[in-house]
Amino acid sequence: MIGLEGLRVLLATALAGSVAMVAVLALRGMVRRRLGASAAYLLWLAVPVAMVALLLPAPRGAVLPVHAIDAVLPAARTVLGHSSTLSLPWTSTLGGAWLAGALLAMAGLLRQQRRFVRGLGTLRRRDDGLWQAQATAGLPAVLGLWPPRIVLPADFERRYTAQEQRLVLLHEQVHLRRGDIAVNALLAALQCVYWFNPLLPLALRRCREDQEFSCDERVIARSDGARRSYGNAMLKTGLALSSLPLGCHWQDRHPLKERIAMLKRPVPGKGQWFGMLLLAAGVSLALGFAAWAAQPAPSDALATSAAPALAAPPRGDTEPTGVPADNIAFARRSPPRYPPGTHAGRLLLQIDVAADGTATDVRIERGSGHADLDEAAVEAARGWRFLPVRKDGKPVAGTVRVPVLFDRGAGRAAGKGSVQ
């Protein structure tokens, strides 16, 4: 079951991917008119780049002001309840809902794949290494992930002229050489993982359209101007009513009229190819860097920025008075016990502090990955006392976030943090 941190990563990557999808959807038409269909297809590389960029370590150079974060969290607690974090039942419910949706999406794609393959009938291997089906709809096609196979319709020789056969086979070979099957497998995986993203179906459909436009463009570039024959081959091809997740085929969703109209466009020259590569790389890197730079700094980095003096071990039973309100002021703090073992870890606690300075509730906002370390930190935090924040000269209740570091080398734990 996916945990709270997994849900955060899932939502963050979905947001980054959505921003990249919107950018590509806005640019693809103009890029296709100016640089060609292959340039529009390359633009879609920006989507996985932006999503993967969020998995890289967050930047530490520019830390968001803690006061700005503190101003937002109380409002969030008002809407969501007393705690700004999801409780365990909510985390389990959301994780279960995501898993159920992912499994349903996967089952739907497998059903589509199986329906298409069954509709082909018995496949026969030809002497030229290609495969021939008993059906005609949706063929020719590249089928399967490992190993991918070019499958021809039963009437391949009767339906197409010799030149048209050569062009159709070249079309499928372009799919194979470029690895479009692997791209479509990645699109299917995204459809399962991010089934809740309403923008994803449109983006996937447009991406596969650009894939076919780009393949047509490459065929024309290698066929020495046989545009009419290729257009006739398109019109003779039987369209499939169902989609093929792991494959490249001719389906009714492909805009056939637009594909035939694209054949009239000139083939991109070397300058345009260089321009499309620069554009695709530039857009991908720009969106990836934007997604990476937009990450909030790690909680421990925020805490260190807000209260660097508290990073050291406790100095006694009391803390000096006059500590600023944006720092944690401990009245009593004993380090957590270090559980037996050699592992280290870092976690983030959220502690509700009463007006008298006692800890009324301790929650794990981000676990260390080790249950014994989490339990030791919570147990110690329940005994901590704080100097509460004062309002109009009177102590008031509040909430603090305390990062706790278990140092494997020193064999002890140190706490530090900042007031929310």
What is shown here, in short?
This protein has 420 residues and is α+β, with helices and mostly antiparallel strands. Helix content is 50%, strand content 13%.
Give the low-pLDDT segments. Answer: 61-87, 299-327, 415-420
What pattern of helices and strands is seen along the backbone? HHHHHEEEEHHHHHEHHHEEEHEEEEEE
Count of DSSP strands = 14
Shape: elongated
Strand order of the largest sheet: 1-2-4-3-5
Describe the structure.
The protein is an alpha+beta fold. It has 14 helices and 14 strands. Strand 3 and strand 4 (149-152) form a beta hairpin. Helix 1 packs antiparallel against helix 12 (270-293), helix 2 (37-43) packs antiparallel against helix 9 (200-222) and helix 7 packs across helix 10 (227-236).
List keywords for this structure.
single chain, 420 residues, alpha+beta, five-stranded mixed sheet, five-stranded antiparallel sheet, 14 helices, 14 strands, 50% helix, elongated, disordered C terminus
SSE blueprint and pairings:
Blueprint: H1 4-35, H2 37-43, H3 46-53, H4 66-80, H5 88-119, E1 124-125, E2 131-132, E3 141-143, E4 149-152, H6 156-159, H7 162-178, H8 180-193, H9 200-222, H10 227-236, E5 247-248, H11 256-262, H12 270-293, H13 299-306, E6 330-332, E7 345-353, E8 359-366, H14 371-381, E9 385-386, E10 390-391, E11 394-395, E12 398-407, E13 412-415, E14 418-419
Parallel strand pairs: 2-4
Antiparallel strand pairs: 1-2, 3-4, 3-5, 6-9, 7-8, 7-12, 10-11, 12-13, 12-14
